[in-house]
């Protein structure tokens, strides 16, 4: 049996979960999320816990058991506390700033790059313009938006310039060797 899949999910106070067949709606103080799951996986609400179980030990059911539990857990955590992903900008003249709700990146191109946040996503930039945070209730969407921002100017291995995740280590390379005489 799946070690992750058999763990119950505790539902904190202020969060309501509505299970209708294979569709789950989670509402909390930060917002609401809805997702459809496979009909072969059963989701039950017992008191203040969610329990995920599968019908059989078929290979597909085993593979989706832990996934379903993890997705449900992320939904509950997202609507109660939310998720965030931090990015750092390194390079001379590289910076980020906010124009209303939009994030504007100046990272060495001839033009600034603008990002409009989708629903339930917000950006924060510190006062130096070197650290930005992507906040939201959907873990998958927060990660995808952070990846799109990083993709604008990924860190390069020679000088380390670019946009990187918090805690990401860049493997540095040696530059060109000097000319021998």
Describe this structure in words.
It is a single chain. This protein has 181 residues and is of the alpha+beta class. The protein folds into two domains: 9-80, Outer Surface Protein A, domain 3 (Alpha-Beta Complex), CATH 3.90.930; 83-165, Ribosomal protein L6 (Outer Surface Protein A, domain 3). The protein has two helices and 13 strands; from the N terminus they run ββββββαββββββαβ. The chain has a four-stranded antiparallel β-sheet, covered by helices on one side. It has a three-stranded antiparallel β-sheet with strand order 1-6-5. Strand 9 (102-106) and strand 10 form a beta hairpin. It is elongated. The model has no long low-confidence stretch (mean pLDDT 91).
Named CATH topology of the largest domain? Outer Surface Protein A, domain 3
Helix coverage percent: 10-25%
Unreliable runs: none
Number of domains: 2
Rg from alpha-carbon coordinates: 21 Å
Q: Order of helices and strands, N to C?
A: EEEEEEHEEEEEEHE
CATH homologous superfamily grouping of the largest domain: Ribosomal protein L6
Give the name of the CATH architecture of the largest domain: Alpha-Beta Complex
How many beta strands in the DSSP annotation? 13
CATH class designation of the largest domain = Alpha Beta
Structural class: alpha+beta
How many DSSP helices? Answer: 2
Adjacency order of strands in the biggest sheet: 11-12-7-13
> Mean pLDDT, as a whole number?
91
Q: What is the global morphology?
A: elongated
Q: Largest sheet at a glance? A: 4 strands, antiparallel
Strand content: 35-45%
How far the N terminus sits from the C terminus, by CA atoms, comes to 68 Å
């Amino acid at each position: 049996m799946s070690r992750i899949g058999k763990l119950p999910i505790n539902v904190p106070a202020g969060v309501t979960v509505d299970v209708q067949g294979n569709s789950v709606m989670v509402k909390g103080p930060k917002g609401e999320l809805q997702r459809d799951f496979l009909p072969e996986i059963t989701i039950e609400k017992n008191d203040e816990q969610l329990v995920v179980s599968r019908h059989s030990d078929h290979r597909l059911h085993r593979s989706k058991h832990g996934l379903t539990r993890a997705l449900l857990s992320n939904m509950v955590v997202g609507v109660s506390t939310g998720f965030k992903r931090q990015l750092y900008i390194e390079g001379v003249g590289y910076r980020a700033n906010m124009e209303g709700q939009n994030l504007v990146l100046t990272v060495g191109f001839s033009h600034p790059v603008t990002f409009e946040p989708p629903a339930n996503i917000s950006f924060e930039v510190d006062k130096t313009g070197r650290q930005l945070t992507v906040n939201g209730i959907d873990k998958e969407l927060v990660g995808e938006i952070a990846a799109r921002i990083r993709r604008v100017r990924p860190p390069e291995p020679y000088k380390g310039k670019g946009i990187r995740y918090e805690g990401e280590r860049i493997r540095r390379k040696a530059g060109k060797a000097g000319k021998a005489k």
